[in-house]
Structure to design on (595 residues):
C-alpha cells in the first residue's frame, strides 16, 4: 500500500479498502469460532464416531451425520451434573454477597471523607496485587484448620473478597455528585439510605461489570477448588471435566458435552452484558 | 469537605455539637461500611501472604517430623537447583512471547473492530466466544485438537503438510501452549482496548486528516497516545495472569516433555504435593510473587514515563 493519499486510487485497491475490513473480520471471527463449533458438533456424536473421524477432515467434521443428545444424558446422570449445579450455586452466591460487600466498601472509600482513607485504600490495592492462585496453598492450610474443606463456604469465601471489584466500583462512586449526598443528608436520610437509595441505583453499569468480574473469577477457578473441594459431592465443573479427561479410556462424547455446558453459561452472560462491561471499564478511570 | 458532612441534620436540639458522639464520627461510619470487605481481604489475601512468607523460612524434617526455623535456607536450596532455574527460564520465555503477542493482537483486533462495516458486531461476538471458555476447558479441548492423530494434523494433511508433534515435542510444546492460551485471552483484552478506542474524540482524527497525516501516522500520533492508559492496564493485568498459568500445564503436559512447559506455578504445586516439601514450595511462591511485582512496576514506569 502506498503512502500517497492525495492521488486517486485505481478500482482494485479501492474495493479492497472498502471490503477489506469486513473480509478480514469475517475470516478472523470464523477462525476463533471453529474450535468451538467442532466441540459442539462433537458433543452431538457417539464417542466411537468422534474417534473414527478424528484423523480425517471433511464436511462432517463440523456437522454430525445423525446428531444425538446421549452424551448430555450420560453427563447428567453422573457426577458432572452435580458439579455444574455446584458451580452455579457457588458463583451465584459469590456474585450476590461479593457485590454487596464490595459496593459497601467502595461507598466507605468514596462517599465518606475520613482520616486514614488513603491507608485503607492502599490495603485494597495491595490485596489485589497479591495473586490469589499463588497464595492458595497457605490459604488452603488455614481453611483445613477451620474445617472448611469440602464445604460450600470454603469454596465461596475466597471469591467474595475481591479488591478489583472494590476498585472498579469506587472509581464509579467517586463521580457521584457530592451535592446530591448533601441534599439527601439534609433531608434526614441516613448513610445507609444514601448508599442504598442513591449510590446503588445510580451505578447499575459498574455493578454489572464488577458482578461479571466476580462471576468469571469463580466460574473459571481451578486451583482453589482442586485444593479445597476434593470430595465428589463438592466438586466444581472444571475439576469434574478434568477428571473425565484423566480417565484411562476418556469418553470424548461426554467431555465435549461437558465443555459445551461449562462454556454456554458464561457465554450467555458475557454476550448479554458485554455493553455494561465496556461501560464500567470506560468510567473506571482505567483509561 | 469534611466539615459540610459534620452537622447531624435530624437533631435540632443539638445546638453546637463540638465533639461528635462516637457512632456519628465519619471514620466510624465509613469503617462500618468497610469492615466486611476489609475483614475478607485481610483474612483471605494478606494473612495467607504473610503465612507464605513465614512458612518459606521453615523446614520440616521428614525423619524427625519436627519443623524448625531455617532462615533463608530454602531460598539457597532453590538457587542451587537446576530444576528451579529451568522453571524460571520457561516462565520468562513464555511471558516474553505471550504478553507482547497477546497485547499486539488484541490491539490489532480492537482497531479492526472499531471500524464500521457490515457484520462487525457478529464477527466481534465470534472473537469473544473463547473468552467464556474456562482455562481447564480450553486445555481439554486443545488437548484433543493437538493429538498426533487429531484434527489439526488432519487439516495439515489436507494441504499436503507433514504432521506435527505439538505437545509431545520439547521444541513445540510451549508454543502450542501459547497459541491455546491466546485463543482465550486475546478477545478478553480486546474488549478493554475497544472501550478505550471508542472514547477517543473523533475531531482529533479529523484534525490529523486535515494536516494530511497518513493512516499510519494517525495511528502512531493519535490512537496510541490516547490509548496509553487502557494499554498499560491490559499489559499489566495480562502479565499477572500469565505468570500464574497452571491448569493447562497440569491437565496437558505435567510440565513435560523434558520440562519444556514447566511453568513456575506448576513447579510450585509439584514441589508442594508430589515432592511434599511445602516450605520449599512456599519459598518459590514468594519468588514468583516478587518477580511478578517487579515486572509489573517496571511496566508501569515505562508506560508512565512515555507520557512526558
Amino acid at each position: 500500500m502506498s503512502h500517497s493519499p492525495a492521488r486517486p486510487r485505481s478500482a482494485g485497491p479501492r474495493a479492497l479498502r472498502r471490503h477489506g475490513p469486513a473480509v478480514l473480520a469475517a475470516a478472523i471471527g470464523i477462525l476463533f469460532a471453529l474450535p468451538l463449533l467442532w466441540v459442539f458438533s462433537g458433543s452431538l456424536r457417539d464417542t466411537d464416531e468422534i474417534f473414527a473421524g478424528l484423523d480425517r477432515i471433511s464436511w462432517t467434521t463440523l456437522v454430525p451425520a445423525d446428531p444425538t443428545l446421549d452424551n448430555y444424558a450420560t453427563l447428567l446422570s453422573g457426577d458432572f451434573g452435580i458439579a455444574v449445579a455446584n458451580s452455579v450455586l457457588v458463583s451465584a452466591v459469590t456474585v450476590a454477597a461479593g457485590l454487596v460487600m464490595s459496593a459497601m466498601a467502595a461507598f466507605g472509600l468514596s462517599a465518606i471523607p475520613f482520616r486514614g482513607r488513603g491507608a485503607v485504600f492502599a490495603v485494597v490495592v495491595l490485596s489485589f496485587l497479591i495473586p490469589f492462585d499463588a497464595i492458595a496453598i497457605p490459604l488452603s492450610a488455614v481453611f483445613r484448620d477451620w474445617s472448611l474443606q469440602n464445604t460450600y463456604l470454603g469454596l465461596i469465601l475466597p471469591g467474595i473478597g475481591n479488591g478489583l471489584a472494590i476498585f472498579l466500583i469506587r472509581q464509579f462512586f467517586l463521580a457521584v455528585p457530592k451535592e446530591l449526598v448533601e441534599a439527601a443528608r439534609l433531608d434526614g436520610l441516613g448513610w445507609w439510605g444514601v448508599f442504598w437509595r442513591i449510590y446503588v441505583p445510580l451505578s447499575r453499569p459498574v455493578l454489572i461489570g464488577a458482578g461479571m468480574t466476580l462471576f468469571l473469577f469463580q466460574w473459571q477457578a481451578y486451583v482453589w477448588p482442586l485444593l479445597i473441594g476434593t470430595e465428589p459431592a463438592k466438586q466444581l465443573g472444571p475439576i469434574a471435566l478434568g477428571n473425565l479427561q484423566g480417565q484411562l479410556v476418556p469418553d470424548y462424547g461426554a467431555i465435549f458435552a461437558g465443555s459445551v455446558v461449562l462454556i454456554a453459561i458464561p457465554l450467555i452472560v458475557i454476550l448479554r452484558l458485554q455493553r455494561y462491561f465496556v461501560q464500567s471499564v470506560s468510567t473506571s478511570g482505567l483509561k | 469537605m469534611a466539615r459540610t458532612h459534620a452537622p447531624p441534620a435530624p437533631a435540632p436540639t443539638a445546638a453546637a455539637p463540638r465533639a461528635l458522639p462516637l457512632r456519628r464520627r465519619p471514620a466510624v461510619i465509613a469503617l462500618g461500611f468497610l469492615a466486611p470487605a476489609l475483614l475478607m481481604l485481610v483474612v483471605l489475601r494478606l494473612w495467607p501472604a504473610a503465612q507464605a512468607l513465614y512458612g518459606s523460612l521453615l523446614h520440616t524434617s521428614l525423619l524427625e517430623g519436627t519443623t524448625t526455623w531455617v532462615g533463608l535456607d530454602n531460598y539457597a536450596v532453590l538457587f542451587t537447583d537446576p530444576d528451579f532455574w529451568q522453571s524460571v527460564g520457561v516462565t520468562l520465555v513464555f511471558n516474553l512471547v505471550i504478553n507482547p503477542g497477546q497485547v499486539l493482537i488484541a490491539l490489532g483486533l480492537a482497531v479492526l473492530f472499531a471500524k464500521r462495516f457490515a457484520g462487525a458486531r457478529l464477527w466481534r461476538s465470534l472473537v469473544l466466544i473463547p473468552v467464556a471458555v474456562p482455562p481447564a476447558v480450553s486445555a481439554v479441548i486443545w488437548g484433543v485438537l493437538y493429538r498426533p492423530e487429531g484434527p489439526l494434523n488432519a487439516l495439515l494433511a489436507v494441504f499436503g503438510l507433514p504432521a506435527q508433534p505439538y505437545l509431545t515435542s520439547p521444541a513445540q510444546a510451549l508454543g502450542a501452549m501459547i497459541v491455546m492460551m491466546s485463543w482465550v485471552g486475546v478477545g478478553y483484552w480486546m474488549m478493554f482496548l475497544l472501550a478505550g478506542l471508542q472514547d477517543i474524540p473523533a475531531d482529533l482524527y479529523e484534525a490529523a486528516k486535515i494536516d494530511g497525516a497518513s493512516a499510519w501516522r494517525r495511528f502512531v500520533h493519535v490512537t496510541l497516545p490516547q490509548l496509553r492508559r487502557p494499554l498499560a492496564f491490559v499489559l499489566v493485568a495480562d502479565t499477572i495472569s500469565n505468570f500464574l498459568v497452571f491448569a493447562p500445564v497440569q491437565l496437558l503436559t505435567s510440565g513435560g516433555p523434558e520440562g519444556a512447559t514447566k511453568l513456575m506455578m506448576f513447579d510450585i504445586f509439584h514441589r508442594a504435593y508430589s515432592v511434599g516439601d511445602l516450605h520449599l514450595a512456599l519459598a518459590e511462591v514468594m519468588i514468583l510473587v516478587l518477580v511478578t511485582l517487579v515486572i509489573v512496576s517496571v511496566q508501569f514506569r515505562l508506560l508512565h514515563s512515555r507520557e512526558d
